[in-house]
Amino acid sequence: MKTQLALPTLLLTFAAMWSAPIHAAEADGRQLVEMPPEARAELRAEMLDFQTALHLIVGALAEQQFATAAEIAENKMGISAMGRHRNAPPNARPGMFMPNEMQAIARSMHAASSDFAKMAKRGDTTRALGSLTAVTGACVACHRSYRIQ
Predict the structure, then answer these.
(1) Number of neighbouring beta carbons within 10 Å of residue 73
(2) Any idea what the Cα angle at residue 132 is, between residues 31 and 60, rounded to 5°?
(3) Tell me: the pLDDT tens digits for 72-111?
(4) How many CB atoms lie within 10 A of CB 99?
(5) 28 secondary structure, DSSP code
(6) Exposed, middle or buried: residue 98 (CB in 10 Å: 0-12, 13-18, 19+)?
(7) Burial label, 50 (beta-carbon count in 10 A; 0-12, 13-18, 19+)
(8) Cβ-count burial of 125 within 10 angstroms (0-12 exposed, 13-18 middle, 19+ buried)?
(9) Distance CA 119, CA 97 (A)
(10) What average pLDDT score do residues 55-83 get?
């Protein structure tokens, strides 16, 4: 009897595993933000640059290179990094297609990065890492709320 139940259970398990990715994509509750391919490419490039900057910041903190972490944060992600797309053609400016709430999250990430830079310059790893969570929190909030395809 146990053998007879094992096969159907195994088949149902495999069926669930194979259908899970399709279900996950269909159940994506994030808001789709439509934009031209040029703007989408610019936004993707910027996100990859932010990801690289975060990696370098964490590495610098691990080595207690606070000035380096602060410089990367301000120049690559902070208020100083805003306006990256201002000279691009209109169809390549992601901000023109972002909802107001998404823009607010982006601005908060830039501000949090500048705040982190100030905190990192103080040389306190614990406080610097605590400040960095506001940066990553903005990233999480945006990526959990919005998608571009």
Answers:
(1) 31
(2) 125
(3) 999 999 999 999 999 999 999 999 999 999 999 999 999 9
(4) 12
(5) -
(6) buried
(7) middle
(8) middle
(9) 33
(10) 97
CATH number of 30-147: 1.20.120
Which H or E element spans position 32?
A: strand 31-32
Which amino acid does the sequence have at 70? A
Residue 120: exposed, middle, or buried by beta-carbon count in 10 A (0-12, 13-18, 19+)?
Answer: buried
Of 97, 117, 121, the closest CA to residue 35 belongs to: 97
| Residue 145 and residue 28 in contact, taking contact as beta carbons nearer than 8 Å | no
**100-120 helix and 37-62 helix, angle to the nearest 10 degrees:** 20
Give residue-wise pLDDT tens across range 16-47.
Answer: 445 555 555 568 999 999 999 999 999 999 99
Both tokens assigned to 138: 């903005």
> Is the full-model pTM beyond 0.70?
yes
Q: Tokens standing for 10?
A: 């195994």
Question: Minimal CA–CA distance to 75: which of 47, 105, 113?
Answer: 113
Which residue ranges make up each domain of the chain? 30-147
